[in-house]
Amino acid sequence: MFTGSIVAIVTPFKDGKFDRESFKNLVEFQISNGTDAIVPVGCTGEAATLTHDEHKEVIDYTLEIVNRRVPVIAGTGSNSTAEALELTRYAKKAGCDGALIITPYYNKPVPEGLYRHYKTIAEDVDIPILLYNVPSRTGISILPETVAKLAEIKNIVGIKEASGSLDQVSKIISLCPEDFVVLSGDDSMTLPIMAVGGKGVISVAANIVPALVKEMVHAALLGNWAEAQKMHIKLFNLFKALFIETNPIPVKGCLYLMGKINLELRMPLTPPSEKTMNELENILKQYRLIS
């Protein structure tokens, strides 16, 4: 369940509250377009500004809509080990297939602190766990040696890597068991990461082009590198456009232009600037996602 094209799905809002109707439509859009798994309440899902009750509501509603058609891997990370443990316990109890746990942000723990953080959660909650390394957001990068040490724990099964470093990815793959899964956490790095042994992506772009992201990823998984490269180049400008402002601002702007959600984000995130919206509109027209 931890290979292929996995969407980091947005959390839509309406008048400041979780928009259940739009969210259901987004999930159905993903499943009908062949997305391999769904990650709710991650960074793209604005988990940092959801209350705990909202966080749990989104998990529960995702499971209800999906109804076992694809795996659900809930974001359950926090800069507090106790809080991450509580959310991971909830994901297990609710019926999630796995948990995606970001490295603690702001605290900047040393490698031993990172090891103890993940070890504490993994030993307490019997659920498959993906580590999540995104130093641009957290201020710290998990060392490949720490990843290898954590890979010895039976239910720590892989990592979402968004460090932007192929050396980091290559070293993780060289140090970890063959069945330890490395997934790209950055759409534009998916193909390079898969070329050195990665198994897919947890994707922002899949929110708007799920079938195309899956086509690229599955071509690479099947060893059809020429087709995968063709798709990578085809999608590259879109991948970059989704990060012209802080994620998920641009992807929510795109979904709004596509008529799928309201243009609402939780402060301190703000709607896209007029300049950004014009750029997004142009890129969506190029990909024939809007007329």
Write structural notes for this entry.
With 291 residues, the chain is α/β, with parallel strands linked by helices. The chain is built from 12 helices and 10 strands. The chain has helices at 20-32, 52-66, 81-94, 111-124, 135-138, 144-150, 166-175, 190-195, 210-221, 225-241, 249-257, 274-286; strands spanning 4-8, 13-14, 17-18, 37-39, 73-75, 98-102, 129-133, 156-161, 181-184, 200-203. The strands form 3 sheets. It has a 5-stranded parallel β-sheet. α2 runs parallel beside α3, α3 (81-94) packs parallel to α4 and α4 runs parallel beside α6 (144-150). The two termini are 35 Å apart. The model has no long low-confidence stretch (mean pLDDT 97).
Question: Looking at the chains present, what oligomeric state does this protein adopt?
Answer: single chain
Number of helices: 12
Query: Approximately how much helix is present in the residues?
Result: 40-55%
| Sheet with the most strands: spatial strand order | 5-6-7-8-9
The SS-based structural class is: alpha/beta
Apparent shape: globular
